[in-house]
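note to self — DONT lose this again. spent like an hour looking for the file last time. sequence + predicted structure for the chain T wanted, 519 res
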Amino acid sequence: MSTDSPAPPPRVLAAEVEALRADLTAARFTSARSEELLGPVASQALRRENPAPARRILTRLEDPAATLLDLFTLGARIPRAQVEAALPALGVEGAQRLGLLEADGEGPDSPVRALWELAPYSAQDDLGEIEWWIASDLSELATDAPLGPEHVLGVGGASLTLARITPRERVGSVLDLGCGGGIQALHASRHAERVVATDLSERALSVAAFNAALNGIDLELRQGSLLEPVAGERFDLIVSNPPFVITPRTLEDADTTWTYRDGGRAGDALLEELLQSLPAHLAPGGTAVMLGNWEIREGEDWDAHPRRWLQGASADGVDAWVLQREREDPAQYAETWIRDGGITSRDPRWPALMSAWLDDFAGRGVTGIGFGYLLLRRPLGSTGRPGVLRTEEVPATGSGTLSVHLAQSLRMLDALESLDDAALSASRPVRADDVVERRHLTPGQWDPMLIELVQGAGFARSVPADQLLAATVGALDGTLTLGQVLAAVCALTDADPDEAGARLLPAVRELAITGMVTL
């Protein structure tokens, strides 16, 4: 949505990258230090894309980390001498050779500005604390201009979400499909022997190469569309935050990229194309974790599109799980992505963009757009069975680590397919520690109107239960088999054992998939 030419990508020059790393380390240019310098009010304002409080604070500080934050995040023009003090090993000239800075003169007071954002990034995984620096195109905070179609995004909300839901078991090979600046590939490098990162954009791959070099990480980078660069290859883990934004396509703008997250396809066709091809690239035991948008059309269920897309995966024996986290109407969706590109309702382009988006959705009868997670897993060995296709709406989030929860649920989908009712009855399930029972009663009455089994972790699910299911789950401590527990509960309640088993065994299966019961 911007016609300004983007800055050339940063260059990987070994000596200069090493000097930059040394300077950033010496300056303690970390997320924690940035929060400390700004304080809670300015930090929170900056997250809301309000830079004013941060600017007031940073201009008064002589700390090197403050200089770097003001320069690379807020886009301030800073005197050359001050930048030299913050980057003593690299210097302004070294930063210019890397393509990070632009200097207007050589005098100590001549202004220097950043051509790229360079931000500290902190996280934690099973291997411990992560402290990296991530380069990306300057944000609206720095440029005060709409984002262009070639914009390489930093670590945004979607990136953080994908990183949090991705399983982190040790694996041999990982594919980061549509890697952008490479943050998912960097995470994968900590638990994989080999990481391949692909993107259609040569510019994005250059940024990923710079980020990998700056943080001392080896990645295998390949250019190409979707899965073309890895034709014939299989991976133990595939992660993808694809360009899933649904944007208008008309005859007049058929060659126009409306947003840097636009995949260049009509509607949600890009995600359909990707999901139909992706299962062939999963190794036995391999998992794919993706984010995506899908259209919800008039008269259709919310999961009609993902269910259709994943029929081929199911036929190939791959288990698939679609979790819808949010739903927006067409107007909300258009507003979200027009604003995300840096255009507000006061901009003269706003009415035309809104009309184009709404006309596009109306032409396909779209009444809503879903956002969520798509997870696929190819079982180990040749099972000979069709894959399980599960869809679920999960608007809430509980405590704990979602990546662990999702990985366990995917394995349980596979395990339960080979467990018949007799085998399930012979197992010794255990109620998860985070599951509690909630009862709703009319004041003064003994019998509850509603019983719920409530999950504290995972997606904080609430499952309606009757007295029989609640009593059964309450007794699952691993001492007795499920069959023995059912028999005891039926004896105490005078319930028919066959009828109770027919009703409760499927319910226990569902509780096992959602992590409320472990087998």
